[in-house]
Write the structure tokens for this entry.
Amino acid sequence: SQQGEEDPQALSIQEGENATMNCSYKTSINNLQWYRQNSGRGLVHLILIRSNEREKHSGRLRVTLDTSKKSSSLLITASRAADTASYFCATENAGGTSYGKLTFGQGTILTVHP
Amino acid sequence: SQTIHQWPATLVQPVGSPLSLECTVEGTSNPNLYWYRQAAGRGLQLLFYSIGIDQISSEVPQNLSASRPQDRQFILSSKKLLLSDSGFYLCAWSHGGGSDTQYFGPGTRLTVL
């Protein structure tokens, strides 16, 4: 099964509102990353949070990581119509030699209405 | 700056035909390279990864193979396509050593009929 599972599967909000997406995983990790994908395009990296970090910010993005609960959340503040996309979490498992391999979740489809 | 290219962008192939998808990276050396497949509306499944020329590992048993003839070139192939090979194929690279961001190409949409 997928290491990362996002919740909700789909989220529909109005412009200006905040959007929160959650990710849960099963095993110990080196880091957790969030990616964005516009329809039919490649993925774009948003933010990486390491296992010894609890919170990171990048512009309107805020990511938290709770390793005791094996969960992460991505908050997008003051959303815009251009934020409409699919958002994926991905984990790099701890232990051994991972070679940077990532395990992706199924994603959250975010729709921001103007 | 680094860039990653994939081609073709779209491909429609009959069942049983061969496949060759190409991925090249510019502006970096000795990258880790990855091939993913994405089924419609779902997450990415890692197919192959490579940490160097002729060093390729397969993550899942399948009808596909990968090769890395040059440091920054990664090729995904099949001798005979199956219907189940349809999907969106994404190539990605990262700096060697792990624990780093992956940078994705634009992808190839493959339809097997």
